[in-house]
Amino acid sequence: MNKKIIAVFLSVVLLICALSACSSPKTNQNNSQISVQTTSEAPSDSLGFKLSYSQSDSLSPFKSDTLNNQVVQNLVFESLFIIDETNEVQPQLATGYQYENGKTLIVTIQSGNIFSDGSAITAKNIVSSFENAKSSYRWGNSLKPISSAAAVSDTVINFKLAYKNPNAHKLLTFAIVKDETDKKGYPIGSGRYKFGEGNGSVYLKVNKKKSDFKPHFTKITLINITANESIENAINIGNISYAFRDLSEGSNAKINSNKKAVDLNNLVFIGINCNAGITKNEHIRKAISLSIDREVLVKSAYQGYAKSAVSVFTSASSIGKQTAVFESTADVSAAKQAVFQSKIEGKNLKLDILVNSNQNKNSAARLIKQQLEAVGFKVSINKVTDKNYKSKIKNRSFDLYIGETKIPADMNLSSFFTEKGETRYGINLSGNCAKAYKGYLDSKNEIGTFILNFSQEMPFIPLLYRQGMICYSKSLHGDMQGYVDNYFSNIQDWYYN
């Protein structure tokens, strides 16, 4: 067996031993509220800071469709928990949680939490917000593992889980909103700012109920801008102060303001038809993975706004660091050895890569084609419309396809390994890998057992975790901390000259 393959195998075996030795995660956590750093002497600024929003879209977090408005809402609403920059959960309105019988999650909130209008936040508000979030486009998919919620008292909520999930509390990041709106018809939250209106314009003003929040920007003007290109132009010329760009559709070259990359939980992967053609052979699947230089994909296809997937999980998380088994660079020698072990003759080493119209995916497909051909494969790229792309994947009419999926905050991979999963196509759901993953969810085996089976079976190939970008005015100062779903982490420290 090739030395490279032996080394990977041994590293995974050691991983299982290490993880098995660890104590099981605690099911009862009592966490204190996040402390907010304040600026001692903050000269107020009620004119300088501006954000874009979509006037035609709702400002309710359960009804809005645009990223524009969702970024603004981050300042107005809080949640039970937030996910920090390292993908770890932190309490916000919640004070603790515990699991009961594996399928009930009990969350407590502190008595005395209030909305920006001074009214109390109770468990009934949490349940109402959960039900609205569960039926919304924004949170509906991520909340599927939670069946229902019920208020036990003013400060205790029971969440019923669809299946055992020790990380279900990480999904409770939906906005907590009061059932009634304010006098102007705007939704009410408990965040650092609240909506205001005057002279025909909408703005954000400081929530004075947050006595420990003393920002430089006491008022934030909202500018009606809808098109992505218009937002990018507005940040370049200074018409708005700050924006978050998802970069899902390609290049950031047009943005010349200050920039900061932020991690996303969006996995770009190669889907494989494990049930037909030469990709039915596990040695061929391993050879494909070994052929790929993930660092080249990051730098070229994604202009540096991504991180190589050296694990199934993002390397920004603790579980991703613990389960790293892939190399970020290609190993052509090991790939050729895997091809030899497959016993498939060179004339039959033909692969087709299915791709849609996405610019990044097309660039990645061209690079992957070159990398596979360096090992001896004959590769063609099948570029189709987005509609045909989805149809071909569902019909398993592919050898390989380049896909992307957002891994939920609880790091659940059921999308790949269950009969109704959106990314299950081509995967052998009765294989050892799928069984090992189910065993992990049922606490019958450790995560290392799943990773070992994954590296042997290679049901799909993780390529990279895509990043987004925070961009902001060059005249804006401060240590610009912010990340997805907490874009304005330390806005109290930002200021203009």
Architecture overview:
Strand 7 and strand 8 (156-161) form a beta hairpin. Strands 12, 13, 14, 15, 16, 17 and 18 form a 7-stranded mixed β-sheet that branches. The chain has helices spanning 3-21, 67-73, 123-134, 228-237, 282-291, 294-301, 318-322, 332-342, 359-373, 386-394, 414-417, 432-441, 447-457; strands at 28-30, 50-53, 81-83, 89-91, 94-100, 104-109, 146-151, 156-161, 193-198, 201-206, 219-224, 242-245, 258-272, 306-308, 350-355, 378-383, 400-406, 460-472, 476-477, 495-496. The protein is globular and about 75 Å long. It is α+β, with helices and mostly antiparallel strands and 497 residues long. The model is unreliable at 20-40 (pLDDT under 50).
Question: Which key features would you list for this structure?
Answer:
23% strand, 497 residues, five-stranded antiparallel sheet, seven-stranded mixed sheet, 13 helices, alpha+beta, globular
Please write out the topology:
Elements: H1 3-21, E1 28-30, E2 50-53, H2 67-73, E3 81-83, E4 89-91, E5 94-100, E6 104-109, H3 123-134, E7 146-151, E8 156-161, E9 193-198, E10 201-206, E11 219-224, H4 228-237, E12 242-245, E13 258-272, H5 282-291, H6 294-301, E14 306-308, H7 318-322, H8 332-342, E15 350-355, H9 359-373, E16 378-383, H10 386-394, E17 400-406, H11 414-417, H12 432-441, H13 447-457, E18 460-472, E19 476-477, E20 495-496
Parallel strand pairs: 2-11, 15-16, 15-17
Antiparallel strand pairs: 1-5, 3-4, 5-6, 6-8, 7-8, 9-10, 10-11, 12-18, 13-17, 13-18, 14-18, 19-20
Helix pairs in contact: 1-13, 5-8, 6-9, 12-13
